[in-house]
Structure formats: structure tokens, C-alpha cells
Amino acid sequence: MEQKNKTPLLCLVVIFLGLCLQLPFQTINNLPVHQRVTVGERLNLNLSLPKFLAPHCRYTVDGMQPSNFGLNDITPVAATPGRLDVQIKLFGFIPVRHLTVSVVPEIRVIPGGQAIGVMVESEGVMVVGRSVIIDRQGRRHNPAAAAGIELGDVLLKVNGIKVETESQVRDLINNLGQAGKPLQMELKRRQSRVTYRTTVKPIYCQETKRYRIGLYVRDGTAGVGTMTFYEPRTKSYGALGHIISDLDTCQPIELGRGKVMGARIEGIRMGKKGLPGEKMGVFRGDADLSGNIIKNTNCGIFGKLTQEPKNIYRKDALPVAMAHEIKEGPAEIYTVVQGEQIEKFNIEIQQVHPQGRSEGKGMIIKITDPQLLRKTGGIVQGMSGSPIIQEGKLVGAVTHVFVNDPARGYGVLAEWMLDDSGILPEQVSKRNVEKMTILALKLGYSLKI
Fold first, then answer.
1. Over the stretch 221-271, which tens digit does the pLDDT of each residue have?
2. Cα(363)–Cα(327) distance, rounded to whole angstroms?
3. Which CATH class is domain 2-106?
4. Which residues of the chain are in CATH 2.40.10.120 domains?
5. Model pTM?
6. Among 36, 80, 131, 250, whose CB has the most other CB atoms within 10 angstroms?
7. Which of 384, 386, 400, 419 is catalytic?
8. 290 catalytic, yes or no?
9. Is 242 a catalytic residue?
10. DSSP string spanning 5-55?
11. Gene3D superfamilies annotated for this entry (predicted)?
């Protein structure tokens, strides 16, 4: 009888402990599995655990457990670059979290803000639409659709000939159609990145008076954006903060060739609720700012400049903040709203999402500067790439606007942009603990419960 009376009490205790620990362990589980820190900086492993659990959590760093190494009391600081394998265990034997920490040298860059013209030529030509062909008898055809070609596919070769421009593809199809030859086409499917081949027979189009296969294609795009940073030592730059996609298919453009150049902002179309605004600019095409485009990623475009930009807001290089250093609160952006003059405007970082790497959306920002709101209505197209500065560090770049609230939008984290640019090493060689100097630093903060 006594045992039965204790059972409900034990169940209540277990449920109570489960509720108490649910949020803390969710916090632990949401920690990124990979973290970067600069040399001499402490690891950001501040876990919101109850006070009674904190003394029972231990770290091991590359399998090493210092005797005075405890949660919320001492945290590791790496004195040299390298890669650390960090494990957090409860009571020293229950695995709680495992993450890899890359220790990198401090990176400093010149913040941008310049208006730039961006010209991109795709690899091959992209399929952006399909159309029906009406032959001499008035019958309707679409041989490309019948062959399984989809929007967003990239046409690479026709009968073994590499294609690069819209006009080249048009002439090839017409000439081979006149000769009565089918087209052996090699394409790449964007979603799977798999190359496939198909055969298409051109049909004479009564409307255009030439042979066609029922596709619309595009070989590139151009537009105005903003440069985010420039690294003088390597002459590397990052810009836009988001991937360049085709306007019709919304599919990312497979980069073939591309270049950036200086631009001048001639006017602003104000942003309104439901209608994003836009910077209206012209390409300058002079040697003041020019470079190539090597990468087109979810975090921006990257390449090398032929010379250091002359039009800069500040000459001193700023350190780049790692993801865990970014805070909610006031910040600034550099951007151009008229001519070529870079100006500084106030914003607020409202949320930070370090887990949003796949989409390049690492923070939510809000324009708070009355002057910028009067000039643009908020975030507008062409502002993408405007550097975000917080507490003397480059923390990210403006990327997207909320259509229903043009004063707010997304930003990409600067760490991600540096990673894609190649300035930050993708891999930091792992070394033995004996060769890695680990320091300890007293934190002196209290746990939140």
C-alpha cells in the first residue's frame, strides 16, 4: 500500500522535472553544431540551465578535461588557430551536446556601401519560358515540352556545340531545322544539378518564319546593387548578400562569366506596403571600380577587384563579427541614395537567426533613420549588400525587404559572406592537444533561469 502511495508522487516529480528541463535542453539542442571564434576570444557556450544543473555539466575540448573546467565558471579560449572538438556532458558521462569550433585569425575588411552595376552571363542559356508553335497547317506543337525540358533547366550543348548566347541557340536551331536534322541537346537540371540529354525535332513556325522548338531562353542578367566589403590583402570583395536569380523562373543563375563596375544612383522609387521600392541607377563603366564575379551563392556574389575602390565611407578596416557576437539592438548601414555619395543611416537589429545559413537570412532588421525613410520608404531594391555595422564591427549586409512592411527586412551574416568569399578557411587543420594552446578566462556572469 505504501509503495502505491509513492507512485503518483514520483510521477509528479518526474513530470515537474521534465517541464523544468524542457526549455533548457531545447536551448542546448538549438546551439549550432559548428561555431567560429577568433583567436583570443572565448567560446560562446552560455547555456540557460537551472542553477542546480550548472555545476554538474562539464566540457571536454579535444578530449581534454582540465580539473577546474566547469560550466558558467570557466570557458575555453584558443590562443592559436585550429579546430576544436567540444563535448558537453551532464554529470561527466551523459552526452548533452557535441560541436566543432574553428579558431580563425581576426579578419579585417574595408566596409563598402558603393552602388555597383552587376552583369552576369549564365553557364549556357537558361530556359525561362515555353511557347506553342503553330505550323503551316495551323497545328499546335511544343516539342521541347514533349521532350521533358523544364523551366529553369540550363541548355549547355546542341549537337555537341557549346552554347553561350540566345542568338547562337536561335541560329543553331533554325539551321539544323532547315537541314532536317534533330537536335541532340545536353541540359542541366537546376534542382538536382544532374546533366541529361534529350532529342528534339525543330518545327517550322508560321509566325516567326523560322524553325523553333518552343522555348524562351536567356543568357544573363544585369542590375544595380551595393558592395558590402573589400579585403585589401587579397583584393577580394563581397556584394549583394543574396544569390542572383532569373526574374522569370526565380531559379539561381548558373554563373558563367560576370563583372561588377561602378554605378550612379539617379533616383529612387519609394517603397510602399505591397510594392517594393527601387534604386534607379546607371552603370559608369570606368576603371574607378571594376572586378570579376567568381561565385554566386545564397550569401552574395564574390570575386576580385582590379584596384582598391576610391569611393569609400571610411578608410580604416573593421573587424568582422562572428555569428554569436551579433546582438539585438541599434546598428548602422552604409549605402548610396543619390549620386555616388555613401551615407550612414540608423537601423535596429530585431532578431538574429544563425541557423538560417541555407537561405542567407541571418537577421531581421528595421530601418529607424527618419531621413532614410523619407528618401526611400525603407529597404528598396538595389540596397542589397549595404554593410551593417554594429559596435565597430561588420556584422552583415541588407538582403531582402518585407513586402508588407518596407521598413523591415532580412540581413545576411558577415561571417557567412566571408566564408563564401574564400577569405575564411573552409577547413582548419586539426592538431593534437599538445600543439594547441588552451587558455582559461573567468566570465563573471550569472545564469538565467
1. 888 999 999 999 899 999 999 988 877 667 777 777 889 999 999 999 998
2. 10
3. mainly beta
4. 111-119+220-421
5. 0.75
6. 36
7. 384
8. no
9. yes
10. HHHHHHHHHHHHHHHHHHHHHHHHHTS-SEEEEETTPBP-------TTTGG
11. 2.30.42.10
